[in-house]
Design brief:
single chain; mainly beta
């Protein structure tokens, strides 16, 4: 087979709402005072050597006690913070294909939040990264190693590759706008939150150094994303639509869908000992690539997500719909409630 042009994209996950550092640095600390999570994805095992991706992340709001006021009807309230900051650290690793093309990525993210009204905030985020990429050229087959009757690995491949691995810096930035309306009365389930953001990755367009005298630069990537959580009043149900639109060079990707949530119980109003728990089932679609089924269990401060990609692209003739599973585990401080410890 002869390939005249090839296009590829960054590491991506189906449960994109669980990996904020790869979507927008401005999402750092947006949802919880503290959040830690791990993620694992396995795909294309039905077609070739499985592509495996995993990662871990931790983020927190700095000086969290200055962020949220307590119940306004109580006598004590926290002092408003002049500067609201959050920080996060994440790591991702990916192995792809027969040559074991590998990517190891470490991100350090910072975000600052500005309150624009009683129910809305604007955040700005920046991210610095160190990227290590590698490949095993010894696993590739080259044309001049075919002697006319059979393949012979003895002759040199004649390729001008300079290194099996290299390290490069990277930079990203983004902006996020969020509105959030809490329940008027605990248990009414009339809460609503929504956010929309824009981010840019590979701002400095790092050069790829696998080949001698290579000047190939990674394309910058632009993300546009949004999500909502809409509680259905007087019920235990909520709808959570979301989308992620990415542009990188000639590659475009749209991932959109929604999740339906059923609340098992709500946050307690005064003690804070009872935490909101829910079960969610979601359906998403990655344009011209996969239909995704997603299951999410949130129990107090813990969350576990399971999803599966059903491949529906032209590759489905070989994959027979089998894209791959993905699992996420999350630990976080509980959702906000009226009671707060000092």
């Amino acid at each position: 087979m002869l390939s005249l042009k090839g296009f590829s994209q960054d590491i991506h996950f189906s449960q994109f709402n669980e990996i904020p550092s790869l979507v927008n640095p401005a999402l750092t600390g947006a949802d919880y005072v503290m959040r830690a999570g791990i993620i694992y994805k396995d795909q294309w095992g039905s077609v070739t050597v499985p592509y495996r991706t995993y990662g871990a992340s931790y983020e927190m709001k700095l000086k969290a006690s200055a962020w949220d006021k307590v119940d306004p009807f109580r006598s004590k309230s926290y002092k408003k913070a002049f500067s609201r900051l959050a920080a996060g650290l994440s790591f991702f690793s990916d192995k792809a294909g027969d040559g074991g093309l590998g990517t190891n990525l470490v991100n350090l993210s910072l975000a600052t939040y500005i309150k624009t009204s009683d129910i809305s905030t604007l955040s700005f985020g920046a991210q610095g990264s160190v990227v290590q990429r590698s490949v095993d050229f010894n696993k590739f087959v080259f044309s001049n190693q075919y002697n006319g009757t059979s393949y012979d690995r003895t002759p040199a491949p004649g390729e001008d590759y300079s290194a099996h691995s290299f390290i490069a810096p990277d930079v990203a930035a983004g902006i996020l706008w969020r509105i959030e309306k809490e329940e008027k009365v605990i248990g009414d389930n009339d809460h609503m939150s929504a956010d929309i953001g824009v981010s840019m990755y590979h701002i400095i367009r790092p050069t790829q150094h696998f080949l001698v005298n290579s000047n190939d630069q990674l394309y910058s990537k632009f993300n546009v994303h949004g999500k909502m959580i809409i509680g259905i009043p007087k019920t235990k149900l909520a709808l959570a639509p979301s989308f992620l639109l990415s542009f990188q060079g000639s590659h475009k990707e749209l991932l959109a869908g929604f999740m339906g949530k059923y609340y098992l119980k709500h946050n307690s109003k005064y003690t804070g000992y009872v935490k909101r728990s829910s079960i969610g089932i979601g359906f998403y679609y990655r344009n011209k690539d996969a239909a995704i089924i997603n299951f999410l269990l949130e129990y107090g401060q813990y969350g576990i997500g399971l999803s599966y990609d059903l491949n529906v692209s032209g590759l489905s003739k070989v994959s027979t719909l089998r894209g791959g599973p993905e699992i996420t585990l999350r630990y976080n401080t509980a959702d906000r409630f009226l009671f707060q410890k000092k």
